[in-house]
Amino acid sequence: MPALAITAYTATTALGRGRAAQEAALRGRRSGLRPNDFGRDPLPTWIGRVDGLEDAPLPKALAEWDCRNNRLAWMALQADGLLDAVAAARTRHGAERVAVVIGTSTASIGATEDGYARLETGADGVARFPPDLTRPIVHTPHSPGDFVRVATGLRGPCVTVATACSSSAKVFAQAARLLNAGVVDAALVGGVDTLCGSVLFGFNALGLVSPAPCRPFDRDRDGLSLGEAGGFALLERATAGHGGLQLRGYGESSDAHHMSSPHPDGLGASLAMRDALARAGIAAREVGYLNLHGTSTPANDTIEARAVAALFPDSLHASSTKGWTGHTLGAAGIVESVFALLALEHGLLPGILHSTLHDEACGAQIRFDNAEDTTIRYAMNNSFGFGGNNSALVFGRA
């Protein structure tokens, strides 16, 4: 596929706001996980929580969209000069020629939970949401996409991708198709998901939440740590002489093996990775860093490690960064794409936090320790969602 220029990118996670905060924490091996302090009756686990959201309401002009999820989207939009870059693209191409493609898993469901918890019964005996939550847009999956569209003044196609944990990786593929088809000249892609009761207690009901900080690919791993995050990237067609970061390929698959478990042979993961490499026109040996999905659940890590070992040489540096941020669900794809882009830009190949005992099922590609100041040409990101919604991305330096 034709390379697409990444002209701006950013992420806000439990590690802080913007790229510099992410890089500093990755380099210093400082985790953003902490004992769960979210909600009225906190589940005994560790989370990656973004500070300051409760004290940061949206500007008055955007108050219709106000909720924790859209507050995080707004916070992320303001980092790393992203809004200025979007405004410049809007001027260059016209607002109608810039798409918005946003990934999310639960969107603003936290506001919906709050609405049901605060139901008010009127004189007619009908229970209704309180007046401050009688805003339909915050109770739909399209809430973050619609909010970003309005907040940025963009008027091109506006798409919300909700494919569980692969959502904000698949936005890159959606944007590439829109650009390559000539529908738009630029695309703002991203993802945002915030903590809420449905996420914490839902994953716990599946037996997937660890009471301790997650340990991806560790022999004794016992579950994931949940987090929240938001991130964005601006994609445009690469012009002659563009020497920056690029999206070089994407791969998608749907193994449809089980509602919440991947195919036991890693079929979907392998298909997505092979498809991404083929679109990028490179061999597996050319990839310098692979950010793994690596949720720290026993089955998922084993299956992903086997798929990676079957495709890549032992020299690959592959790691999961969820020990830093927690599993940010619908935002995981964009956050970990940002980490792959930081690896390309700064030569920082992160290891794995909290993990000490190598699982014998993992190949030599799985690295616990950081490799710093290493120049690489290509980096990949894996994102795999419930139902077998898989995505792999290849990024490169021009």
General description of the model:
- The protein is an alpha/beta fold and 398 residues long.
- It is built from 11 helices and 16 strands.
- Strands 1, 2, 5, 8, 9, 11, 12, 13, 14, 15 and 16 form an 11-stranded mixed sheet that branches. A 3-stranded mixed sheet has the order 3-4-10, with no helix packed on it.
- The protein is globular, with a radius of gyration of 20 Å.
- The model has no long low-confidence stretch (mean pLDDT 95).
Features:
30% helix, 398 residues, 11-stranded mixed β-sheet, 3-stranded mixed β-sheet, Peroxisomal Thiolase, Chain A, domain 1, single chain, 11 helices
Which helices and strands occur, and which strands form pairs?
Blueprint: E1 4-13, E2 16-17, H1 19-28, E3 34-35, E4 46-48, H2 68-77, H3 82-93, E5 98-103, H4 109-117, E6 120-121, E7 127-128, H5 143-152, E8 158-161, H6 167-180, E9 186-193, H7 197-205, E10 226-227, E11 229-237, E12 245-254, H8 267-280, E13 287-291, H9 298-311, E14 317-319, H10 322-325, H11 332-346, E15 378-385, E16 389-397
Parallel strand pairs: 4-10, 5-8, 5-9, 13-14, 13-15
Antiparallel strand pairs: 1-2, 1-11, 1-12, 3-4, 6-7, 9-11, 12-16, 15-16
Helix pairs in contact: 2-5, 6-11, 8-9
CATH topology: Peroxisomal Thiolase, Chain A, domain 1
CA distance, first residue to last residue: 14 Å
Q: Could you give the order of the helices and strands?
A: EEHEEHHEHEEHEHEHEEEHEHEHHEE
- Note the beta-strand portion: 15-25%
What general form does the structure show? globular
How many β-strand stretches? 16
User: CATH top level?
Assistant: Alpha Beta
Low-confidence stretches: none
Mean pLDDT: 95
How many structural domains in the coordinates?
Answer: 1
Output the CATH homologous superfamily.
Answer: Thiolase/Chalcone synthase
CATH architecture: 3-Layer(aba) Sandwich
The biggest beta sheet, please?
11 strands, mixed
Structural class label:
alpha/beta
The radius of gyration computed from the alpha-carbon positions, rounded to a whole number of angstroms, is: 20 Å
Helix content: 25-40%
